[in-house]
Amino acid sequence: WTLPPKTNSITLTSAAAMGSNAEVRMAVEYNGLLYIMSGRYVHSVNTSHSVSTARDLGAGNVGSWLVVVGGSLFVCCGNTDFIHKVNSAGTWSTSADVYAQVIIPTRKVVWRVRSGTGTVDNAISGIDANTSSLETAMVTAANWTFPATTAGYSVGDSSYQAVSGVEYQGQAWFGRADGMFQPDVNGDYFNRTPQLKESPVAGNTIG
């Protein structure tokens, strides 16, 4: 018989209660560190459980999604700022023109939701996952053109913002308050969880 693993308590000084813009939204392991997003800050936790502020996204900016693509970690900021990126050397940079609510990499295409600063913007665009220097290409809006037929495609209507996503069987599914949306063979998204549509809640499909 052995004792269970010991738990460790950490404190994120910038985090706040659920329901606020500073709530802890998600965490991703990258380059030997655990990155935790809460409001305008991205924290990193090392193997000694020491917490550091890895990135201040800026006043008024709120992180919406964390994702590792290739060898870099990307931070989406919804309609509050362009995407931020950190590479394996720990160097941060900010795109000059790419907004994203969510970014989901699949085997063939990296997909993003959002193209501007609208309150609800479910527009979808993609970039070929085999693009040379993919992580560099992702920070330029002109490169998000794959395939050409994505113009006008979106995650459902504008009733709710897509706020989460997951790669499943080679497809990018996206979550909204009213359900999880899957694309058909034509790239049109349909709600596959009608039970959530009956009781849409802001926290649905998150976490």
Strand tally is 15
Helix content: under 10%
- How far apart, in Å, are the first and last alpha carbons? 33 Å
Largest sheet: 4 strands, antiparallel
The ordered string of helix (H) and strand (E) elements is EEEEEEEEEEEHEEEEH
Q: What strand order characterises the main sheet?
A: 1-2-3-4
Give me the Rg, rounded: 17 Å
On the 0 to 100 scale, the average pLDDT is: 91
Shape: globular
Helix/strand structural class:
mainly beta
Spans of at least 5 consecutive residues whose pLDDT stays below 50 are none
Number of helices: 2
Strand content: 35-45%
Structural overview:
- The chain is mainly beta and 207 residues long.
- Helix content is 4%, strand content 35%.
- It is built from two helices and 15 strands.
- The protein has helices at residues 134-137, 194-197; strands at 24-30, 33-38, 41-45, 51-56, 65-69, 72-76, 84-86, 92-94, 102-105, 109-113, 124-128, 164-168, 171-176, 179-183, 189-191.
- A four-stranded antiparallel beta sheet has the order 1-2-3-4, with no helix packed on it.
- It is globular.
- The protein starts with 23 loop residues before the first strand and ends in a 10-residue tail after the last helix.
- The model has no long low-confidence stretch (mean pLDDT 91).
Please sum up the structure shown:
The protein has 2 helices and 15 strands. With about 210 residues, the chain is mainly beta.
